[in-house]
Amino acid sequence: MHIEGSHMDRIRQDFPILKQKVYGHELVYLDNAATSQKPRQLMAAIDDFYSRYNSNIHRGVHYLSRQATEKYEEARAKVQHFIGAEHAHEINFVRGTTEAVNLVAQAYGRKFLKRGDEILITALEHHSNIVPWQMLAEQTGAVLKVAPVNSRGEVELPAYRDMLGEKTALVSLAHVSNALGSINPVKEMVHLAHDAGALAMIDGAQALLHLPVDVQDIDADFYAFSGHKMCGPTGIGVLYAKEKWLEAMDPYMGGGEMISSVTFEKTRYAGLPYKFEAGTPNIAGGIALGAAVDYLNKTGMDFIVQHDREMLEYAGNRLKEVPGLRIIGQSKEKSAVFSFLLADHHPFDVGVLLDQQGVAIRTGHHCCQPLMELFCIEGTCRASFAFYNNREDADRLIAALQRAAAILG
Asked: Which of 367, 368, 376, 381 is catalytic?
């Protein structure tokens, strides 16, 4: 089914940044895997907070503080329902996916992992799902293991299954690869981890702009994502964790808000979720994340999934028309993210030439240097689509690539 026309026009009208020109060309924004663009409804929510009820939350009895607290906790409940969590207090607001992974590594890992325990990740992972586990391994004596991927950019499931064993304490997996767009079968992978007696964490940073997420159906012990990659603001994200693990974990940071009482001799910690939310939070960001959830719900996740599949097929077919272009990673299950090389030209050169034609893509290793090394390359060009991109954007990408190829020779 071809999804264009008035519905797409209405969606694009909600994103003011798409109307501007870059070097005299209408902007084509295809860097959504790095950060998504923001609808005007999100900006209105931020403006509303700062202009009408800006105040610190939870500790105030006055009207503004009560209003801000109510809106902030409403946002937490919106996120809970959006990802299918059982309880609102399983939703912990953090700065983003990176902080969420570090929180689990330090608050869970340092308490429960011991020398000889194994942490299993995959070769697809972003640095944010590698480095925290390396740090934890150094701190505890645990061993970091890496499940391999094949030439299509898919995790080798038989190898992953074989690497799970009685020593495996925790697995941490990307739901969707930021570099290649590969969608992992996370429900199956979590089930296999649990069968081995391990806990499972999912890095969902790239998932929520492309597909619906139900953490209870996946049965993830931990699930992390960032607001700015799902039409929300920067500086806000979510760590979902099952209640039993949050209760068992020690706080990641100490300070205000995360306490129930403090004396010089003893501090008692607050209940969930405040136990892991020390200090004044990003109040405007939390409220705006709630507005982003509202916007995605209004747009419709069914529409978003359908449109993503259409752009994957349409742009994928059009990219085949560019002489010398090679797509890196062609998983059977994939989001509309294309990582590619143009002949033997450096990705940076290609990216600059596309930028001069108003087409914004990402170039480099995409914070996945070990993955690039597996493919024996230094980096790629990456064009990542969102639900507000259309066929014209794909056509402009192809035209810009063809012109870049002609200039580079």
From this structure: 367
